[in-house]
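step 4 of 6: structure.
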Amino acid sequence: MGKVSKDKRDIYYRKAKEQGWRARSAFKLLQIDEKFHIFNGVTKAVDLCAAPGSWSQVLSRKLYLGETVMIRDKCCLFYNEIELHQRLESMEEYESHKNENVKIVAVDLQPMSPLPGVIQIQGDITKYSTAQEIIGHFEGDHADLVICDGAPDVTGLHSMDIYIQAQLLLGALHICCNVLKPGGTFVAKIFRGKDNDLLTNQLLALFKEVHVAKPSSSRNSSIEAFVVCQNYSPPEGFDPKLMTPYLDVSNKDFNSLEGINRVIIPFIVCGDVSAYDSDATYPLTLEGEEPYKHRDPVQPPIAPPYSFHNTVKKDDLDHYLKKMDEAVKRVGLGSSTKAEVSSSSSEAHSEASGSQIATDGDHCEPVEFENIIDNGPLFDLIQKTTKLKKDSNRKNEAECTEEESGLQFLYEDEYTDPELIRECLERMKICGNSSTCTCNYFD
Amino acid sequence: MTKICGYDIYCFDYVWVLLDFEILNIIMSQHVSFESKFIKTDVTAIRILRNVVLVGAGAAIHVFQRNCPWRLIYKQEIRNTRGEKIHGFIPFQKNNLLVFGGPFIIIFNVNHDFTYFEELICKGFSDWILDAKLIDEDNKIVAVSMQNKLHILNSNLEILEVIECIEKCILYSAHICYDKYEELIILSGTVFSEILIWRPTRRKNNECVLLARLQKHKGVIFSLHYDEKSGYICSSSDDRSAVLWNIPHKTLSLEVQQDTINILPKCQVYGHLSRIFRCQVLTECFITAGEDSILNVWSLDGKLVKKIETHQGGPIWCLDCDELGNIITGGGDGGVTSFSLNFDVSDEKLALPNSEKPKLVVALSTHNVVVISDSGDLYLYSQKSSCWFKIAEHEDLGSYVVLDVSKCKNMIALAGFNGQIYIYKVTSNSIQYISSYQTSIKSRIISLHWLTCESFLICQDQGKLSLIYLKKESMCQIATFSLPSGIQPCTTTAAIFKDYIVVGDRKGALHLYKFGEKYPFQTMKRVHSHLGVTNLITKNDRLISLGRNSVIKTFALSHTGLLELISSDKLPFTWLLDLFDNIVTAFSSNNFLIWDYQSKRILFEKSCGGGHRSWDLVKSGNSIMFVFVKDKLINKVEFDFSEVMPYDLIEGFHLKEINSIQTLRYLDNYVLVSGGEDTTLRINIANSKNKEFHNSLTLKSHLSSIRSIAIYRIDSKIDNQEVHLIFSAGGRAQIICWKLECFFENGQLTNLVCSEQHSYYKVINSEESEMRFMHLSVADISGNVVLFCACSDGNIKLFTVEQEEKFTMKFLKNLFYGLRCIFLVDTLTILNQKILVTAATDGKLAFWQLNNIFNGDNFKPFHTIQVHQSGINAFAKIALNDNHLLFLTGGDDCAVILNYIGFSYSVEGFLIIEEIDKFIDTGSHWAQITGCFFSPQYFMTASVDQRLLIFKWEVSAEKIICKLVSKYNTSIPDLKGIVCFENGDFNIFLYGKGIEYIFSKIS
């Protein structure tokens, strides 16, 4: 795939790079905010499963730097330096408007590169100690907003993937209950599937308002959606530090429900009418934009989870050297003709490199050799013998005719009995078009 | 992935409470019945028992009887688990069967041959079950769940105890060892690359202590297995490796009693291209099965013994082995296949006597081998006495010889430089000389091809071809032909096809000869590029040609008597040799291959140094012999074909999501044309009576996924034949037009032929964005067949379909909607006007007038209706009368909306639309709606939440009244649509990741 193909396929991917976001998912949070105003009045926010950090980046730019982020860039028909200058100037203005009282904590097992105003905790979101550490950073206060955009590696078995995503959400919810202040907001990713209703209904016991939101930057074909839980109001006596206080509550609630009275969680689409369509194919340069230029990703991952074939072990190296050695020996002992040497060395080479890709021999042979190869299993023999024969036949022509005379000559077909021809054709028609053998020699 | 802990997370504990309501609901609306006729989806559980095999496909248990071949004897659906997949079967106490899947456990009472199932109890638990087992003489059930907990249950599925391990972590795999509580040892595979060993009897502060932590992997552990007999643990992971762990004290129970447990990797194997989902230790080997569809068999010291291709490239989800060395796998393509792990290959290298050098070799029906040596001596290797016999000395064939054996492997012909021909025939343990002749022109015989076992064709200098008939001992020349001048006289193959002889040459051309005419009646150049034709086979009414350019082509004779290309298929290797019994033989680089054409897997592979050598293959019954010359030796490889030939218990289908299905109905047969993410277009026959489903044709021409299929019927000039045009479109902005011919005899469908007509694909320059085609619709507009195509860049592309030599699509124009991805297009006729309806990601229905479509420009929709918040994924319509319609739409926003629309003309004479009423349902589905079906009384919707809902509707006094009548939970995930036929009852096909055929009766 080319460098630009992803840019072509996905407008938000391209726009994310243009606007300096670490990942396109930044737009999802921005669009959720557009609809639910989750950032209003927030001074303390927590981002769980933060790496690579695009949601933390949104928190940093919106809350700490106080930027007004426009999802859709203003279109200017003629891109000019004055415009750019104005923009840069306004950027500088933001710098001076830093909200020093805003505290953002990002938690992940993976490290990520720093962001202005974001305190990083490299830790496990399921540990109570992590919750305490977060509160420590808020000087004993609780958070106004907890967000989580984590997702597992999908296996391909939908219900299992959805289940694991739900586990991840509940893990995040657990820490959320420990750090969120009453009235606070919790936003997390879910996968939509057959048991979605069970999960979202659960959240209603902890939050006054629960919505399932789909930002328009999230593709239609994707099963992802987000739960936006507002106004945190845990039941009285609810202690999130305890292991299983919640089970009874939920059961009681549910037993009182009639099947039909099941609470319907509203589904809300975010992103205003003018927002880009994540499913549409846009031209690389939109009307009114400066000409398209490829940009590298803003922040490549600094710690890939694990990589394959990263180290060559001594064993592998020895094995490889041994194979090479064998191959060299084989070539040395190979037969004398030039063509054969070249073919056997290429054989040995492909064996030695252990390549599993079936290389079509024809394409890697030299051109003059290709002709012989091209002409099949017998043709090289034919050519050789033709040459031999030409030399010897001149001398032995007389001899030859004598030798042949042992054989009876075939008549040309015009001398063949028409009856025989008819018989042959008939039999051929029967035998030739049937798969079973009808040899008459075994009667 | 972030670490999550196993706090008692409360979510799924009450699953069954809610489900009870759902069951109740269905009982209340009893008058709707559902019968699942068949289902094909991910197979996630397999258990081989003595006489039967249990297969879990979705939520359906399939019972196969171990007969020759396997036979489906019973099918049992699990109805009240919301379509949760089955992940395991455990028979116990003679007549009980425990089934688990997701958080559910179900116990059935069964009879001894599994043809009777009675559900005793079904229960949902608070956590996902990874492994379960019966312990203490089948009195208790233990189950390990994803949060690393062991649940102990009684046979009524009541929880006796939940035991937690000190390490709280999400597991992807677990294995329970031993079957007594006191001995139980749990192996847990974590997200964090570790294998934890703990046992319920070793606790501290009521939590189980960790006995050992095995570390070697670098990713999620997907599978764990411990074999008591061999005493090894095997693990497989996301990191593409599997590890065999050595237990120093031979048994795990003994090992865990040691002060220091010292379980270390014995070997780590890499043999998969992606994640390894399953592994199992057998007595003398261990097996790994991956997402890449490969099943590898390894020796216990880590050497690859056998590599098997299983499910068309789709993942292997589950497997089981029996003591006879059979392994049955279930995969992502919905298939279940049995393979033999036994594989005895006899591989011999034979030298000719008197240090003679072999030149050419053939294999005979008797499995004897005939060789002609460099000096012209003819040898026979007798299989019986394992030794060589010299049959004859042909000194005149010493420096040049052609050798060919008839298809039946009974007749041998030798030919020489001066036109000599010698014929031998096979006898029970040798060969016998029959006759010899010389052609009147004493020129070299370049090639000789047996046509039948009594006639052959020879090719000589100047392209002279002679057909020779062998009557008893005499040879007669029957006819002569000539290759067109200027063609290198070297034929490679010949066959009789109807009344013609077809000859293939080494430059890739086919020549068709009529008797009595010297020059070809038809020459088709470059049929197999410039690389040459390798074989011609006649089968039924078709001629099949194979080439060295990886292509198999099928021809038929047209009514003008010319060869006509029917289909062309490209295989994954270049040098094709033969096609018989649905297997293809080929050379690929240094290897000789036997490939299953139906299931597209390599059955056998042998390194022979490549195709530039003399070789032959004979198959009689199941016995296969392959001989070839290498290093001046005759190599003879023999094996039993049944040991390499897998058997499909359930035939595989699409390996990824099916995006579109179009259906034709013929009595009890449905012809389903399906296309999906795996880029294949498949033509399938489903039978409503015998509930069978067969994938008749698989066509792989698309560059990317198929998103939409449209069918248009055209008039057939021939009786007993129906012709349809199929249009398939999708990724990379490609549309392919196919012609589907259905043949009938006495009203019964007998044959299906599908041929590619035209592929519309424009190569774009690097600056442009390549779009996707989202949806198709065909309509007849003033006598023209017009194809409408919804595009992801906001255009609707119009094509006219014209019949030239083949059917072709001619681009007409674009209708531009806006920078929105358009999901749906459809046409309708109202008030004698053709109207185009489109739906896009903005949730609007747009209506366009088509009356000036061939000449006009600047088309804009004359009306739009905002229906959904976001994308409209599915719609259906029904006409109430001449100018009133109901539009049913299902959206990404989980809403089902019914729009009551009226059409009329304004005073100025413009067509106008009036929105009369609207019905909105937002709570019945809880994921995006992807399928809609409308009938005169009912409508149906299907969603990614795996539910099919049936609503009853009526319109009275301009108001829509709707009521939810019933629902059905399917185990097809990621639903993409519904196809339904109604005639009193409903025949419903639900498709997504798999397909289910449901019969529903509403009384």
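step 5 of 6: annotate
 - The longest strand of chain B covers residues 748-760.
 - Chain B touches chain A through 156 residues (CB under 8 Å).
step 6 of 6: archive
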